[in-house]
Design goal:
Shape: flat
Family: Belongs to the prokaryotic/mitochondrial release factor family.
CATH class of the largest domain: Alpha Beta
GO molecular function: translation release factor activity
Oligomer: single chain
Protein name: RF_PROK_I domain-containing protein
Number of strands: 16
Distance between the termini: 21 Å
Keywords: Methylation, Protein biosynthesis
CATH topology of the largest domain: Alpha-Beta Plaits
Strand content: 15-25%
Number of domains: 3
Strand order of the largest sheet: 7-6-8-5-10-9-14-15-16
InterPro entries: PCRF, Pep_chain_release_fac_I, Pep_chain_release_fac_I_sf, Prokaryotic/Mito_RF
Helix content: 40-55%
Radius of gyration: 31 Å
Structural class: alpha+beta
Length: about 450
């Protein structure tokens, strides 16, 4: 099985790697009757073969040492137990994969011995067919284990599982043609949302009329900007007609799948109103952020300092006779609120607590807004043509994603049907996971980065 979206040059043959110089082959088994193999995942780029082997060996050695310490009772600290628990599922999957590999080796030796014995040809064919069926079954099991291993090594970013995305589209260079392209992109994402079963809500839309911006206009008016909320859960992996799992990115929520759309999108086409039949280049900037959730502030009693005093001011004799006024200090931030409006200390305490909660919530909202605004501005850049992440070339009927160095033919298929867009999102997802795997191996000191020596 091949990991969907991985570039062709990084894919390996489906099956263990042959490391012997000379192997006997039997075409009836569909490949070499290998005598020596080592397990490597099919999604692993070639330059990571040796680093992955080193990482796997060190991981299993560490797991074995931890297992011995725990079994012998020589280590009872919490950190050791947690590390062992973290490594256990990875070690279990690697062990299962090694068992499948050993079974393949045993079957290869068996068929080799039978073929060399010069027995009955019909019996040989029956045995070969039986082994082929069993090998296919093991291959399917191996595919499932490899996906599990991939998820254990590179777990999804929790934020990527977010079901909600806030997308903002802003027309850039190109005037009205940029506005028309923004409308086309909005329709493209609507098509993807329909295909995915997501909720797609346009919460703000500003259209162009002449050279001025107005509120929402007709469905074909050029867009100056639009803000959309897209909500949808990830889908569980299922098997397609060939027995392979659906692309991994479908397991993510709407934000997890759409986050790579942030950036400048460039279009090259002849405007409908052009009299010179000349190709124009326009841009639209897109920002995709997770939908912000309601901020909940929870306080523990040891974070609070309560002071009580007698209220002052109007209110009759009662305000000066009891310590009904309250001063509340939030120790971590130093924020102080006071309340003496009510005659009851209990009521003033409740009001002071609510006032403190509101102040802390405002601070968190402001911090969240600043972080989101900074990220949003980075997505938009200068909206210049040179900042493009993807080019939509209508005259040549092709779309190029410059991050992937990959081209799709058929603009309608990519945009109106959103099929090509789904393929691009999957390829970007696979690219990110390979990059994270590479970084994992770098962090483990098992690989020299790309500018150094690599294994081939």
């Amino acid at each position: 099985m091949l990991l969907p979206g991985v570039p062709e040059e990084t894919k390996l043959l489906d099956g263990p790697i042959d490391t012997s110089a000379n192997v006997d082959t039997d075409d009836r088994l569909g490949g070499p009757a290998q005598t020596e193999r080592r397990y490597l995942p099919v999604w692993l780029p070639k330059d990571l073969h040796v680093p992955f082997e080193n990482y796997k060996r060190h991981l299993l050695e560490e797991y074995g040492q931890l297992m011995n310490h725990i079994s012998a009772g020589t280590s009872k600290d919490k950190e050791t137990a947690m590390r062992w628990q973290a490594l256990r599922p990875i070690a279990d999957v690697l062990e299962e994969l090694n068992v499948l590999l050993q079974t393949d080796q045993e079957m290869d030796r068996l068929i080799s011995d039978v073929l060399k014995s010069g027995g009955d040809a019909e019996e040989e064919e029956e045995l070969v067919e039986l082994i082929r069926v069993e090998r296919d079954q093991r291959a399917a099991h191996r595919c499932a284990l490899e996906r599990k291993l991939y998820g254990l090594l590179i777990p999804p970013d929790p934020e990527a599982l977010s079901s909600g995305a806030c997308m903002e589209l802003v027309a850039g260079a190109g005037g009205r043609e940029a506005g028309l392209f923004a409308r086309d992109l909005l329709d493209m994402y609507r098509s993807l949302a329909i295909a995915r079963g997501w909720q797609f809500t346009v919460v703000q839309e500003t259209t162009m009329v002449g050279d001025e911006a107005t509120g929402a206009g007709s469905s074909d008016s050029p867009l100056l900007k639009a803000r959309v909320e897209i909500v949808g859960e990830g889908q569980e992996e299922s098997l397609d007609a060939e027995g392979e799992a659906e692309p991994d990115c479908r397991a993510l929520g709407a934000f997890g799948q759409l986050r790579w759309e942030s950036g400048v999108h460039r279009v090259q086409r002849i405007p409908v109103t052009s009299k010179q039949n000349k190709i124009h280049t326009s841009t639209v900037a897109i920002s995709v952020l997770p939908l912000t959730e309601e901020i909940h502030v929870e306080l523990s009693e040891n974070e609070l300092k309560w002071d009580y005093f007698r209220a002052s001011g109007a209110g009759g004799q009662h305000v000066n006779r009891t310590d009904s006024a309250v001063r509340l200090t939030h120790l971590p931030t130093g924020i102080v609120v006071a309340c003496q409006q009510e005659r009851s200390q209990h009521m003033n305490k409740r009001m002071a607590y609510e006032m403190l909660i509101e102040k802390l919530r405002d601070i968190q909202y402001q911090s969240q807004f600043n972080a989101v605004d900074t990220l949003r501005r980075s997505h938009f850049g200068h909206r210049d043509r040179s900042e493009k992440i993807r080019t939509y070339n209508f005259p040549q009927d092709r779309i190029t994603d410059h991050r992937l160095s990959r081209t799709w033919n058929g603009v309608a298929r990519f945009m109106r049907q959103a099929v090509g867009l789904a393929e691009a999102l999957q390829a970007l997802y696979a690219r990110e996971k390979i990059a994270r795997l590479r970084q994992l191996l770098v962090d483990q000191n098992n690989i020299i980065p790309n500018n150094g020596n690599q294994a081939h």
